[in-house]
Amino acid sequence: MTEIKEREKWSGNADFLFSCIGYAIGLGNVWRFPYLCYQHGGGAFLIPYYITLICGGIPLFFLEVALGQYTSIGGLGIWRICPIFKGVGYAAAIIAFWLNCYYIVVLAWGLYYAYHSISSSSLLPWSTCNNWWNLESCRTLTQMRNYSASVICSASDFTTDTSMETCLHNKSVHLAQYTSPVKEFWERNALQITDDIGQPGSLRWPLVATLAIAWLGCYFCIWKGVKWTGKVVYFTSMFPYVLLFILLIRGITLEGAMDGIKYLFIPDLSKLRTSTLWIEAATQIFFSYGLGLGALVALGSYNKYHKNCYRDTLVLAAFNEGTCLISGFVIFSVIGFMAKTEGRKISEVADSGPGLAFVAYPAAVAQLPFPSFWSALFFIMLIFIGLDSQFVTLEGFITACVDEWPVLRRRKELFIAAVCFVSFLIGLPTVTQGGMYVFKILDYYSASGWCLLVLLFFECISVSWFYGADRFYEDIKDMIGYYPGRFWKWCWIVFTPLLCTSIAIFSLIEYEPVKYKTYQFPTWAEYIGWCIALSSILAIPIYAIALFARQTGTMKERWTKVTTATIAQNPSLNSDENETKQRMLVEHTTAMTNL
């Protein structure tokens, strides 16, 4: 008989905290939260944001961590508490897999920019217009600021007319059509982007190399198990904060910094009447906390049984929100400086996602003294923030698979390598010349929007309605020694499911097709996106129907079987933990069955 290794635990009390910090504090905190604050009325955005945080984000975070800690098993095995919902575990694993395949390309971009920042001498390659990738319409900030249209034209032997148009090689071009070297470096050097998703172009080999480096980094962060990972995260989760505070100090000392910060937080209460504001606030909470992907369950499953996961949840929530606010100061202090320097409105400078990280911010640091230093600092910070989220999400996927099929634990290092390699191959389309379009499709459909909200709804009701909120509270008391506040139980029973359902419905009602800037994706690309979204969420009803159909007996007997907790001895746990697990009623009819 093949011997199954005993399941690992964190080697130190702080390992779990640092892992969660690294996981939950990701790129969304840096490039999405500040922009959403600005876009949706500054301080007004914080009202629905914190309502969602309290009624949805923290309760679900606590639920996932506590569930993992109590069962000591990954995202597939935990559904022994209510077998009919095991499809939720499969859906979470599929979403995590898609996320692993495309999210890491941001690290590849960051590595590419970090390399160019470090290797440049005095001038950053995106600060000038005399490179092979620049167009004739390229103008540096200095040129645009110091010369009128007529001066630019006459200096280049062009002509101008009263409509402020210039002539480039006998082609009429308005001043607004001049492009910045930063944008051209991003689109024509880094991405070499094509005009259409139907034109994938060739592989960008420098990005293939940085993508491979990123995957190697992820592999070596988790290959030796959680005891090794627990030590890695001490550095990978805390080092970005050192860089973040350095950038904060530099940012708030810049001219115009306070203008940017003011625009970030001054409330426009009229925005509260728009449904888009509430949808954006809720989705930001769920996505930034990494809920529904099985990673938090995996991290909690490596805790010792009596660890105070309730206290840790509150500490982590405070840490995460503090990081969001600091990131807002860092980003918008620089955005304010850039707007002041260019003589533009902040609304014309502010951007979200890759546009903020790889266009707006690099353009700003190019105006600072020692630009290579500040640019390298920013992109190294970006890499470490993304790396944490990436390898912890990967760890959640690996844990779910290894706990479901314990034989994989004997060859865990090889299994991790295989997952990394397959994910690398699947992610190659994102580093082609049309890769940005693929990235947008995956980002828009696979791990965001209504599919994740539906998953979270079923995750919540499976515990609170079927397994039983009171029963789960008893389990938590058995672990931490006291009952948490009853507010969290009411969130699980009422507020959180209602929140997820409402937002999912509104997001479908107000659905807008994916687009990249002004580019509208073709219908076939949208169909592919919907197929990707359904690939995860359909696992929930398919598994439930299949499990119910396999049972014997009357309808009521079948229902009882598929909704009854079946947690038995886990061969990968030690004897003390198994003794605790046996206190659960293996033949327990849930509250829903008794209705």
Automatic annotation (TrEMBL):
Task: Print the keywords alphabetically.
Answer: Disulfide bond, Membrane, Metal-binding, Sodium, Symport, Transmembrane, Transmembrane helix, Transport
This protein's major location comes to membrane
- Would the keyword Ion transport be found if you checked this record's keyword annotation? no
Alphabetized Pfam families for the sequence: SNF (PF00209)
Q: Which SUPFAM superfamilies match?
A: SNF-like
Q: Which superkingdom?
A: Eukaryota
How does this protein sit in the membrane? Answer: Multi-pass membrane protein
Q: Which cysteines are joined by disulfide bonds?
A: 129-138
Q: Name one GO molecular function term.
A: gamma-aminobutyric acid:sodium:chloride symporter activity
Subcellular compartments: Membrane
Q: Where does Na(+) 2 bind?
A: 320
One Gene Ontology cellular component: neuron projection
- Residue spans crossing the bilayer: 12-31, 43-67, 88-115, 205-226, 238-257, 277-302, 314-339, 376-402, 414-432, 444-467, 487-507, 527-549
Binding positions for Na(+) 1?
A: 22, 24, 29, 288, 388-389
Q: Which family does it belong to?
A: Belongs to the sodium:neurotransmitter symporter (SNF) (TC 2.A.22) family.
PANTHER family, A to Z: SODIUM/CHLORIDE DEPENDENT TRANSPORTER, TRANSPORTER
Q: What is this protein called?
A: Transporter
What organism does this protein naturally occur in?
Answer: Adineta steineri
